[in-house]
Design a protein that fits this description.
The chain is α/β, with parallel strands linked by helices and 224 residues long. The chain is built from nine helices and six strands; from the N terminus they run βααβααββαβαβααα. Helices cover 37% and strands 15% of the residues. It has a six-stranded parallel beta sheet, sandwiched between helices. Pfam families: LD_cluster3.
Length: 224
């Protein structure tokens, strides 16, 4: 199975992060997260830290995809936020809870991220919107998994735009293209012809064998 896709995303809060909110397009953030789930689910594993505004977006799309989403997604959540867990958490059977370290927000988030990056090998990381935590995840990922392909969605604004600045050289379409489904197909290298599979175990290792046109067609009924 291919390496997982890491999603680092969030909707900036104007009160807590006005510097991020002023550039953020919340409609674009929502559309981009939905598009990423649509492109990846049933094709690549998707892993993220449970930002309260993002998890419900993912569930909205995942619920109608016809795959065992519990085997395709993994959600990391810190117990520091136990009183704020979104209702949608209960839908994801594959949730990893990390400890509330000294009841300290920053320590708890660092522990969550270290566990997430230690337990998973990411082929690609996608950054959408967000605030300072997006930058923290970018820096930790860059240090722990430097070969991961980085996709900062500049067009939706927020901290992801600053990730792009730190990277320095990003594709122009990440700044301008609002057709997020087509954009993610290109940058993730996932063909539109690639079928979705109910579980990762059912997915052929050879990408060519996943294409719908190459899979055996059912025999025609001859009336006998």
């Amino acid at each position: 199975m291919d390496g997982a896709v890491f999603l680092s995303a969030g909707v900036p809060d104007p009160k807590r992060g006005p510097e991020y909110a002023k550039t953020a397009d919340t409609v674009a953030i929502t559309a981009a997260v939905s598009a990423l789930v649509y492109v990846t689910l049933g094709r690549r594993r998707l892993i993220w830290g449970g930002q309260p505004a993002i998890t419900p977006m993912i569930w909205t799309v995942a619920a109608d995809m016809g795959v065992e989403y519990g085997s395709w997604v993994r959600l990391y959540q810190s117990k520091h936020f136990k009183d704020e867990f979104p209702e949608e958490n209960r839908h994801f059977q594959n949730v990893s809870y990390t400890e509330d370290v000294d009841k300290d927000l920053n320590k708890s988030l660092e522990a969550l991220r270290r566990k997430m990056f230690m337990e998973n090998q990411f082929a690609t990381a996608v950054f959408i919107g967000g605030m300072g935590g997006i930058l923290d995840e970018y820096e930790m990922l860059r240090q722990t998994q430097p070969d991961t392909k980085l996709i900062p969605l500049v067009s939706a604004g927020g901290a992801a735009s600053l990730v792009a600045e730190r990277i320095g050289d990003v594709a122009d379409d990440l700044k301008t293209d609002l057709d997020f489904v087509a954009l993610f197909h290109r940058h993730l290298g996932i063909s539109e012809r690639e079928e979705r599979f109910r579980t990762p175990a059912e997915q052929p290792a050879d990408i060519e064998e996943r294409y719908w046109s190459r899979r055996p067609k059912p025999a025609k009924f001859d009336g006998a």
